[in-house]
Amino acid sequence: MKNFVFFACVLITTVCHSARLPPTFKKCNRNENGFNVCLSNAIEDAVRNLNKPYKEVGLPSLNPLQIPALTIEAGQGTVAFQQKYKNVTVWGFDKINCPKAEIDFEKRTIVVGCTTPLNKMEFYYAISGRILLLPIFGKGPGSITLENLNETFTFHFEEYEKKNKTHFKVVSTKITMEPGRITFNLENLFNGDKVLGDNVLRVMNENWKEVFEDVKASYEDAFGQVFAALFNNLLAKVPVEQIFDN
Ligand SMILES: *[C@@H]1O[C@H](CO)[C@@H](O)[C@H](O)[C@H]1NC(C)=O
Ligand SMILES: *[C@@H]1O[C@H](CO)[C@@H](O)[C@H](O)[C@H]1NC(C)=O
Ligand SMILES: *[C@@H]1O[C@H](CO)[C@@H](O)[C@H](O)[C@H]1NC(C)=O
């Protein structure tokens, strides 16, 4: 019966005004002592298991996560050019650990701290500029691997009423990304000049910290927007009364 209602809602979304979280999602009681611990487990569990889209609650698959286009703005020096990525696929959220989650209902803030052992982004890139003073240009397939990535997500939200139900809406987002190591792989650099391409990649990978530091804020911004949009899709569909268990 549960499944029937679930699928009926998918088909007749106009009848089921406010969506419910899929039954596999854990819920936490706001008045419970261990609320934050419950919340961090619930978030970790949800992210790890989102290996298919849940359209009825506005969520895409996170394992992997597909991003049609991603632009990383130029840095201040080391990477003084815009990076354009298309058809980005991000792997690795199925192994996420989120030991920290805190909601402050008065300040309307949620902070979540997570670690992923290995994230791999696969994409098509197009770049042209200078990196670590070396000229670089090219377009083609590529990947970036981030090892032991620590991430902190801070979302500020507002509350509003829709169809007599309370909803949250994320109004500002801050993400911090601290990777333990980054490996760049860009195929077809310099229109396929492999010797030159391999040399520049080697320099980039030896100096990954410096390279990332210069565009860190742009990465955090770009991913902040991606995750805020994801979260807002869910929050627009699922009222607060359905998210928590009390
Ligand atoms: C990117 O994805 C779109 C939509 O899935 C597809 O039409 C397009 O061919 C892809 N581009 C490349 C270069 O793979
Ligand atoms: C919302 O609640 C009020 C008061 O309980 C009621 O009069 C109204 O019909 C409800 N509106 C909807 C859309 O359910
Ligand atoms: C990630 O967090 C852990 C635990 O707080 C810490 O030991 C580690 O150094 C951090 N890694 C990076 C790259 O900041």
TrEMBL record:
Highest taxon in the source lineage: Eukaryota
GO biological process terms held by the UniProt record: circadian rhythm
Keywords: Biological rhythms, Signal
Alphabetical list of Pfam families matching this protein: JHBP (PF06585)
Signal peptide: 1-18
Cross-referenced InterPro entries: Haemolymph_juvenile_hormone-bd, To_sf
Cellular component terms per the entry's GO annotation: extracellular space
Residues in coiled coil: none
Family per similarity comment: Belongs to the TO family.
Name of the protein this chain belongs to: Uncharacterized protein
Organism: Zophobas morio
